[in-house]
Amino acid sequence: MKNLTTRLLITIAITALCACGKPDEKNDPVTPPDKRPENPTPTPSTPDKWLSEVLEFMPAPGQYTNSSTSDLKAAQMLACTQEDDKIVPGKGMVSLGGFGGYIVFRFSRDVENGEGPDFVILGNAFANSSEPGIVQVAFDANGNGKHDPDEEWYELAAPNRKEEVEHEHYELTYHRPDNLTQISDIRWSDNMGGSGIISTSPIASSHNQCIYPLAEYFADGNVPESITFQGVKLKNNGTTTNGTYWYLPPIGPGYADNYSSDYQSIINNDSDTRNSNKFDIDDAIDKNGNPVKLSKITFIRVYNPMHQWCGMLGETSPEICGAINLR
Ligand SMILES: [Ca+2]
Ligand SMILES: [Ca+2]
Ligand SMILES: [Ca+2]
User: Fold this and answer.
1) How far, in Å, is the centroid of ligand 1 from the Cα of 52?
2) Distance, C-alpha 274 to centroid of its chain
C-alpha cells in the first residue's frame, strides 16, 4: 500500500511537472490502430529486458533536484519489479540536473555486443526539447555486481562528436548556498577559469526547494561545501528569440534524451523501444578517444554534458525514463 501511495504521489508529481512549464512529458508508446507493428505478438517481458537496478544516482543542482520527481526514490522506481510471475517495467523518470549529474544502472545480465544497437535508453525528448546525455559503459570484470574504480568507463561516441564537443576535460564546481531549506542562487566555477552564479529567479515561481544536492546523496549525511563534476562538455544547443521562450533543438544522434532521427523508430517489432535513443557498444572509445572493442558490458552511466540554463526552462538536463536490453 505504501508503495502504491508513493507511486500515486509520484504520478501526481510528474503530471504536475508536465503541466507547469517545461515542455517535457513522458509519452507512453502510442500505436495508432492503423499503424500496428507488423508482428503484434507480445514481446517477451523478462527480467533480462528491462533496466533492473539503479546503482547510483547523483544529480547536479537542477530545478527538480531534491523534489520527488528527481530523488533517490524516483531513481529506484526506474528498475523493473516482479509481481507474482510477471515482470513489471519501471516507472517514472529522473532528471539528472545541471552539468555532471549522472545515473548508473544495469540489467539483470550483461549486454552482449551483437550486430547493430544493443540497448536503448528511454527519454522524454521532443523536436524542440532535446537535452542530450552522454552514455558510458563498463564491464563488471570481477563479477561482484558493483562498479569498481578499476572497471573503466568507455564513452559511446556519437557520430558527430567532434563538432559537438566544446571541452574534452571539463570540471564544474558548484558551491553550497547558505540556505538549504529553499531555492537560492548557486555559485559555480570551472577548470577553464570561468565562474558565475546560477540565477534561480526565473524558475522560483514553480520550484521552491533547495536545488543543491542534499544529505541523502552523501554517505556521511553532510552536505559538502562544494561538489565537482567532471566530463566532456558539449556546446550549448539552446536558442531564444526574446529570452522568454527557449528551444532546445536536437543535436546529432548518439546521446540519450535527444530527439535524433531514430528516436521514434522501434526495434525487433517491440513498441516499447519507441521514444528512445539507440546505442551500439561498437561505438565505445577509451579516454584517449581510441575505439575499443567490447564483447559485452554490464553497467551503463549517463551524465549531463551541458552547462546551460535557459530562463524559465531551467537547466538543460537529460531525463531518463528507463532502458531496454535488446539482447
Ligand atoms: Ca552492437
Ligand atoms: Ca565489479
Ligand atoms: Ca528531456
Assistant:
1) 20
2) 16
* Mean pLDDT calculated for residue range 24-50: 46
Sorted by where each begins, the domain ranges of the chain are: 2-25+46-325
Q: How far apart are CA 109 and CA 43, in angstroms?
A: 18
Number of residues assigned to the chain:
327
| Å from CA of 299 to ligand 2 middle | 9
Q: Say what the pTM is.
A: 0.85
Q: Which of 2-11, 236-245, 282-291 has the highest mean pLDDT?
A: 282-291
Give the ligand at the shortest distance from the Cα of 26: 3
- Three cell numbers at 22? 517545461
> How many C-beta atoms lie closer than 10 Å to residue 282's C-beta?
17
Q: Average of pLDDT values for 199-228?
A: 95
Distance 138 CA to ligand 2 centre (A): 9
User: 267 C-alpha vs ligand 1 centroid, how far in Å?
Assistant: 13
Confidence of residue 249 (pLDDT cuts 50, 70, 90): very high
Question: Is the distance from CB of 249 to CB of 317 less than 8 angstroms?
Answer: no
Q: How far is the CA of 129 from the centre of ligand 3 (A)?
A: 6
pLDDT digits (tens, 9 = 90+) for 69-124: 899 999 999 999 988 888 999 999 999 999 999 999 999 999 999 999 999 999 99
Beta bridge partners of 302: 103, 135
Question: How many C-beta neighbours within 10 Å does residue 195 have?
Answer: 11
Show the cell assigned to 239: 536558442
HSE-up (13 A, CA, CB side) for residue 106: 17
**Of the bound ligands, which one is closest to the alpha carbon of residue 132?**
3
Cα 155 to middle of ligand 2, angstroms: 18
pLDDT at 270 over 70: yes
Cell, residue 159: 557520430
Q: How remote is the CA of residue 72 from the centroid of ligand 2, in Å? A: 22
Grouping H, G, I as helix, E, B as strand and the rest as coil, residue 110 is: strand
Those residues whose C-beta lies under 8 Å from the C-beta of residue 28, and which sit 6 or more positions away, are none
Q: How far is the CA of 54 from the centre of ligand 2 (A)?
A: 15
